[in-house]
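Annual report, structural modelling task.

Input specification for the protoporphyrin IX containing FE complex:
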Amino acid sequence: MKLPGRLERSSLGSLILIAAVLGCSAAAFAYSAGWLSPGRLTPDRMIAALTPPSGPPLGHRRNHAKGICFTGTFEANGNGVELSRAKVFAQGRYPVLGRFNLGTADPNAVDATVRVRGIGLQISAADGEEWRMAMINPPFFAVSTPEAFHELLVAAGKKEPEAMTAFTRANPEFGAFAAWAKSAPWTASYAEEPYNSLNSFVFTNAKGDEHTVRWSLVPTAVPVPIAQADLQKRGPDFLEQDITDRVRSAPQRWTMVTTVADPGDPTADPSRAWPENRRKMQVGTLAVQRIEAERDGPCRDINFDPTVLPQGVRVSDDPFPAARSSVYRKSYDLRASEAGAYPRNGAAKP
Ligand code: HEM
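The model returned the following structure:
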């Protein structure tokens, strides 16, 4: 079909413009993926650093590979509306999909050997809008930046002990985390752990007011300290057994508490806790109602990407969520493409 001359010329102009825009976008993607700068931290380099010497956990998450899926509800008490217009803060009950997990790349790890315990969570509003998050039990993160996390993984993977000494000298904030790991009491249950966002996000309410916040899930179950040596006497999967038994007898609950930063608080650095006296607000309760199959249940094909946020919540100046999002996506793509190595309905563990 032949176009009239004027339209043809303007179509050609549009095509050139579209090509230029696409070219710029491709260059921007290439830049953000690190292709144009070999020294840059990329999702591939982060995944390589997470990979144990024995090889990648094919078909599994590249970190927090061992876990157990659940469903439940988030019961909002309505208080959160003051801080954020996210629909799931309006008083009501919202469906939740979640996963308790261990901070390890080994899907067969012995539960008593893994210090960091976590939770992945998705809360859905009635119109399908989703809020995804992934939180852990330490009160602050191990390091200040995604780059330092990469260096930590590299140093921890080296045989020479000097590698960790040099890392700690260059990243002194790691000392506080090492002290937490050594001295914080262990518990025998996912239900007795707090889970903390650590990263900060910005809440916007209906009036447009903005607050930078972090949030935590505080367990209703009373934590019972137990020596790690005693946990080692239990089976390799005692955490899964325990949470399955508890949830079968009654829903397990956590209070969601938001903490608002004061001006000047370190919002971009999750290794620095904010002072205890910051404004806290209880916004609702997580109720875990049903343990679901891990291998072929609803958590298998979800990526608890912390940048999947509802309206009324956005990322802050904290650089972690964007970095995490790119690595989680890479991990998700890998495990989805390796499904054959972790067949659904397989009899073998896990
Ligand atoms: C740059 C820093 C980080 C990197 C590179 C990283 C990497 C990863 C990867 C690759 C996964 C598996 C994703 C998937 O396949 O779905 C994962 C899961 C997870 N991460 Fe991170 N992570 C980082 C920081 C954090 C922080 C700061 C927290 C908590 C505050 C956290 C908590 C979790 C949790 C709870 C999961 C398991 C979620 C699930 O069950 O699917 N991570 N992480």
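The longest strand covers residues 280-292.
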